[in-house]
Amino acid sequence: MIYLKQAATTAETDHQDVRDLVQVMLARIAISGEEAVRDYSRTFDKWTGDIIVSPESLKAAADQVPERLKEDIRFAHANIRLFAEAQKATLSDCAVEILPGLMAGQKQIPVSAAGCYVPGGRYSHVASAIMTITTAKVAGVPHIAACSPPRPGVGIPPAILFAMDLCGADVILNLGGVQGVAAMAHGHFGLPKADILVGPGNQYVAEAKRMLFGQVGIDMFAGPTDSMILADASADAEMVAYDLVGQAEHGYNSPVWLVTSDEALAQRVIRRVPELIASLPEVNRESARAAWDNMAEVILCSDREEMAQVADRYAPEHLHVQALDLDWWLGRLRAYGSLFLGEETTVAFGDKTSGPNHVLPTSGAARYTGGLSVHKFMKTVTWQRATRAAARPLAEATARISRLEGMEGHARSADIRLAKFFPGETFDLGVTDATA
User: Fold this and answer.
1) C-alpha pair distances (Å), 201 with each of 117, 209, 255, 315, 355
2) What is the pLDDT of residues 404-431, one digit of tens each?
């Protein structure tokens, strides 16, 4: 493995100032409630209007969205809903007779309330509204709240409001940042307290979710987005370069990586990427240039197995294979948030419209978790039921194991059942060898 381009910095930096500010904000909101939320909204979003978006405002927003954009949003919503429904179909209740008379099973129960955060800073993240709210709706969550940063004097952009409403949000809040996720977590403004908070956001939103975890569930700890392309000699260097630039524009701290077995392709991409970045609009250009200059890597490998090993070690959020024998890659790769196979797809499709969720693990977290799915909104719970005959061997073994562990109260819970269900019988319920 040879680095033809190596990152000068990494996404792992000191966020102590972020942690300190978020901790103060959450503490104040916990004490002062809605008053503190409104104050932070005035300070950070310059918003003094209504917090809850009214039905009249939703209708007015929908009237402002061009019909073609509405159709595009409906198209994306249908694809994402279909994929979420297919995911839900993989979840099932079950029951098994463990021993004669002992039945045990599991049930799938959706959480009662979800809070969906939709970013709304430099970019209007219509797709994030579709990804989070639609998936919660398909899961069967009874109450879905959604919030997004309002723009001064305007509120949440009309396209985002249209998407939120289309996808099934029960309540929409003109709130962004820490105050938005905290309001949903605490159940302010008449909301039920959220059982889970989901959705991407900036470092302050991510830190707030991290600090609230335990009090509520969250989808994942999110860092800057990252993407990797695996390309062999068959790949189109121009297409590879465009795809790297498309992901680098997310932000200055969003790494992109090219792993290839073909040095000629790598060198063409290295030359072409800066040219493509230079053609982007100003803000996007600055972000992409910083990401490419400081964080991008180009890695030359001896063969496809070494390429796969590199990918598994990095565990990228997005992993795009532009190489021959796609079935081999699908079977071999083991650590990624979402996998894109072949040049006919691209991460941009997954980010916006194709179906699988774009809320994905970053910073190597794909080693141990997947992205947002219907499963995140569901609880797999268990149950059991026994006949008195089945309770007999269970109680005998439970009493003896409990006494071995020194848990006499547990043992007596078993003893009393034997005494009631089998009166007059004698059982050996003591510990025969405490040192075993």
Assistant:
1) 7, 10, 17, 21, 20
2) 999 999 999 999 999 999 999 999 998 7
